[in-house]
Amino acid sequence: MKLSYNWIKEFIEIKVSVKDLGDKLRSLGFEIAGEEKKGDDVIFDVEITPNRGDCLSVVGITREISAGFGLEMKIKKTEINGSCGKINDSIKIEINEPLLCPRYTARMIKGLRVGPSPDWMVKRLESLGVRSINNVVDATNYVLLETGQPLHAFDYSLIRGSKIIVRKANENEKIITLDGVERKLDKSMLVIADNNRAIAIAGVMGGANTEVNLSTKDVVIESACFNASSIRKTSQLLNLSTDASYRFERSSDIDEAMLSVDRVCSLIKEIAGGDILKGVLDIYPVKKKQKNVKVRFSRIEKILGIKIKQKDSLAILKKLGFTVKTQKSFFTVTIPSWRESDVMREIDVVEEIARVYGYNNINAILPSCDLGDETKYETVGSGLLDVQDAVRKILTGFGFFECINYGFIRKGVFEKVLSGDSELVAIKNPLDEEMDKLRPSLIPWLVENLVFNFNRDAEVCRIFETGHIFRMNKAVGLPEEEIMVSCVISGQEKNFWSDKKRQIDFYDIKGAAEFLFEKLGIEGVQYSALKNCAMSVQGLDVFVGDERIGVIGKLKEEIIKYYKLANEVLFFEFKLAVLERLRKKIINYLPFSKFPAVRRDAALLIPLNVTMEEVVGLIKKNSNELLVNIALFDCYEGGQIPKGLRSLAFNFTYQSNKKTLTDQEVNDVHFAIIGTLAEKGIKLRA
Amino acid sequence: MEEEKNFENILVSARGEISSAPGLNELEETRIKYLGKKGVLTQSLRKMSEIPENERPKFGAAVNSAKEELNSLYEKKLQELSSADVITNTGQDLTLPGRRSISGKLHPLTVVLDEIISIFKKIGFIVVDGNEVETEYYNFDALNHPKDHPARNIQDTFYLKDDILMRTHTSPIQVRVMEKVEPPVKIIAVGKCYRRDAVDASHSPVFHQVEGLLVDKNINFSHLKGVLSYFLEEFFGKERKIRFAPSFFPFTEPSAEVAISCRACNGKGCRICGNGYLEILGCGMVDPNVFKYVKYDPEKYSGFAFGVGVERLAILKYGIEDIRLFCENDLRFLKQF
After folding, report:
1. pLDDT band at residue B39, thresholds of 50, 70 and 90?
2. What is the CATH number of the domain that holds A311?
3. Could you read off the pLDDT of A72-102 as tens digits, one per residue?
């Protein structure tokens, strides 16, 4: 909101610099977004929080300044002596919706001359960004800026039936508003009407049918109070926000309605002439009761952590317009009409004291630091933050860069492929039609990241993400959430200048997965041929026992083609919750042998339908405790190897923890093991 | 005259010997021969007494400039020979890059989040997370947002169903914690949040938040200031000034906004910050209405809550000018942290 320093000075005698005033306003909770010198005036752009509708005016802000600096504010009172006829004889007012319009006041001026406003008013309005229209309209805008009370002037001669009715609009009722736009109303909206038709959308904008114009002689001035949420809804439905609706939405001061109608009439008389009719119409069916709040001295100290002198608190509240009675251990605080929507409870009054006392005058104290009992929160969070942290560190240590993406999925091949898998979660009101569902996997974004980087000259891309994925649980009709870790890798790698460039392949991603399991201490990992993965047809399902951890795979051709990728893309996606369950949290040291190890290499001819995992399992099953390690060092097919077979070369390590093994002892065990493999058609390569 | 000529000869041979030194050892010998303490040039200066007094300044200047010239010639040759020497001595160019095992990096938001968490852990806060899909109750109702609060607007919040939405802050975690746990509660709630903001350099529909909550007997506003001042000093350094100003949030009363002085101008006001301070976080004493929702007795317990955007802190810490960089995941960006 724009504020003129000169205007403020009309209400308070203040001699502080522009900077000091800005600092004070900020310390009171009114952030200064900007300030600008205009002639001999300074215009502040002040941010008013939504709870402070009462400060959307010169008077409101000046009240804060008076409390902030401890200065008296000048109260301007308007005395009106009606000089001709009685208003009661000219117009009647009827409120059909007292809940939506708790008060409606009006005065009438006859015989005025509509014309341009005086220079001082034009200048002031324009410096605050308000366009001058004519003296009558300008006066209503001027008083709105001064007191915060929205006002409206109707041309009396255009009101039919000498009656103003506050009622709900009829369904599809139409009105052309002052901006020349025809608006279709509905039954939820409040209108001001005459006997025949709507003449204004209550609290939002007047109608063109009763607009003050150059031939207007007599006007009716409306100064009313409307229900805040009703105005907000109407303004939203019509997509029409005005200075008036902005203020009513933030609650207007019910007492100010009466004061401002007098203020504006005297101003109009001053600049447009005419006579104010005797009397004021004031329809105020349910008079609001004054609210009293008990504020305990002990509570102020308990919430703020400091002792503020009673007389200081008292002075602050009085300057803000509160009426205060001091009791033995508490204040009885009466809330002024302009703060009723915002200050209702003891705590709200405590905030007022703290705010004006100054947050910067309250000490900073570190509370005692008992380490809370971490276990008591276990039932609330995912419990996966630690494993997530561990996984991040392991994967960055293995050469992967962490990515963070939106929880949405972009339209395209992945959405198509993955919606076959299960129902995706749709957003009712997406921001971008391209992203109107939640992601059921982390892989789609990671592949997008990969494409983004390849398009920017990256040669190799090894990336991962940990994050939430979403799927619809059809049984309960609610989305389900799971936290995953996924890796994607692709490209040509060359880590050392004398190495050859190497195409990233499946064993790169497999290595990453193995490294991850090893680092997490997950044992007994088993792989089986990939089944039912929407993103891949070549890969492995990963299990420990019956529990499925996730998949390792090569991205489907369909997806590679969609993104026009030059290289194959490998990925894995694992469930963090399963990794957390399986990971070893306690390490038990195992003693190792003091005696030397003996190594034997053996190249085995193996039928093509037997996996290495099977062979190793067989070897382990048929060996004794002397075989401490077995490692593959070559895999070969074709050439001199007979058809239907391949050669896997292993390095066997034998060691006893009781003695140094002799060659004979090692050979006995070694060849016995190999002998047992014959049952699977496996033999030693000659 | 004779001295001068003699000197010219010395200079010519010195130049020649330096330029043609075949190795580091020979070069060092040459240096000692001409430029050393007992070197030829130094000796020349000592002979100053033998020349006429009026010629002495000229001669002195000539010797000094010769010394300078030879010195720079020597430095140049030294560099040339040292460089070559690496290869001559070993038969290999040892300046070629070494073999390295590759390593990746954490996303800058994770780096910043880890730092924030480690600071709060030091003073006893425990980290809790939660789901990104939330109910309207936990996201708004229980946080004292009135039914017609603007944030509930379909313009501002992603809805999945009428009462199911993408959380707009991590505060639902706080409510869920308070529902299940009796005070004292001392937590940091972290995670991804969603608001229906169109993307530009400073807005993103997805962002990350850290929120804190401390509830116990006798917790007051000065503790709020204490904890946040500690955090900001640890994160930004003690030299930055911290400012608390009143603000408004539905779930806190009194509410405050915290700003730190701009590093560039130290709070004086400049092009970067405008008025000298940068807004960092929102906070306040937990509103008694929130306690009522979770059945805490506001007479018995009090507490404070605060929220800070991780992107905002990362932007200030690293001088990042565009929030979109965080979700683009450009490797050239990720490699820098």
Report:
1. confident
2. 3.30.56.10
3. 999 888 888 777 889 999 999 999 999 999 9
Residue at token pair 């093991």: A673
Q: Which member of A51, A398, A456 has the closest CB to residue B330? A: A456
pLDDT digits (tens, 9 = 90+) for B166-218: 999 999 999 999 999 999 999 999 999 999 999 998 899 999 999 999 999 99
Residue type, A175: I
Q: Are residues A277 and A299 in the same domain?
A: no
Q: Chain A to chain B, count of Cβ pairs less than 8 Å apart?
A: 248
Q: Are residues A18 and A162 in the same domain?
A: no
Shortest Cα distance, chain A CAs vs residue B184, angstroms: 8
Comparing CB atoms, the residue among B102, B173, B218 nearest residue A399 is: B102
**B81: closest CA of chain A, how far (Å):** 26
* CB-nearest partner of A366 from B123, B130, B194: B123
Compute how many other C-beta atoms are within 10 angstroms of the C-beta atom of residue A498: 7
Q: Which of A50, A395, A429 sits opposite B158 (nearest CB)?
A: A429
Cβ <8 Å between A497 and B128: no
For residue A44, the tally of other CB atoms under 10 A from its CB is 21
pLDDT in tens, A516-552: 999 999 999 999 999 989 999 999 999 999 999 999 9
Q: Does residue A165 surpass a pLDDT of 70?
A: yes
Based on the fold, state whether residues B46 and B157 are members of the same structural domain.
Answer: no
State the sign of the Cα–Cα–Cα–Cα dihedral B198, B201, B202, B206.
positive
Evaluate if pTM is beyond 0.90: no
The alpha-carbon gap from B214 to the nearest alpha carbon of chain A, in Å, equals: 10
Nearest CA in chain A to B182: A376
Residues A453 and A578 both lie in one domain: yes
Q: pLDDT tens across B74-130, in order?
A: 898 888 888 777 777 777 888 889 998 888 999 999 999 999 999 999 999 999 999
For residue B21, name the pLDDT band (cuts at 50, 70, 90).
Answer: confident
Q: From the candidates A359, A366, A449, which should be mutated to test the interface with B, based on the most B CB atoms within 10 A?
A: A359
- A620 shares a domain with A574: no
- Domain of A496? 385-582
**Structural domains of chain B, count:** 2
Whether A479 and A454 have beta carbons less than 8 Å apart is answered as no
Cα angle B246, B248, B250 (rounded to 5 degrees) comes to 145
Look at residues A199, A281, A186 and name the one whose alpha carbon lies nearest to residue A234. Answer: A186
**Do A617 and A475 belong to one domain?**
no
Contacts of A453 in chain B (CB under 8 A): 329-331
Nearest to A402 among B106, B214, B248 (CB): B106
Mean pLDDT of chain A: 94
List, as own/partner pairs, every contact residues A616-624 make where C-beta atoms lie below 8 angstroms and the sequence separation is at least 24, other chains included: A618/A676, A618/A677, A618/A680, A618/A682, A619/A650, A619/A673, A619/A677, A622/A672, A622/A673, A622/A676, A622/A677, A623/A669, A623/A673, A624/A669
Q: What is the largest CA-CA distance in chain A?
A: 131
Q: Is residue B103 part of a domain?
A: no
Flag whether pLDDT at B49 surpasses 80.
Answer: no
pLDDT digits (tens, 9 = 90+) for B6-17: 778 888 888 888
Q: What is the CATH number of the domain that holds A534?
A: 3.30.930.10
Asked if the Cβ–Cβ distance from A468 to B97 is below 8 Å, we say no
CA distance B77 to chain A (A): 30
Range of the domain at B45: 2-90
> Would residue A78 count as lying in a domain?
no
Are B84 and B202 found together in one domain? no
Same-domain check for residues A54 and A198: no
Q: How many domains does chain A have?
A: 5
The answer to whether residues A317 and A250 belong to one domain is no
B229 with B286, same domain: the answer is: yes
- d(CA A332, CA A325) in angstroms, rounded, equals 5
CA of B310 vs chain A CAs: smallest distance (Å): 13
pLDDT of residue B6: 75
Residue B122 to residue B112: CA distance in whole angstroms: 16
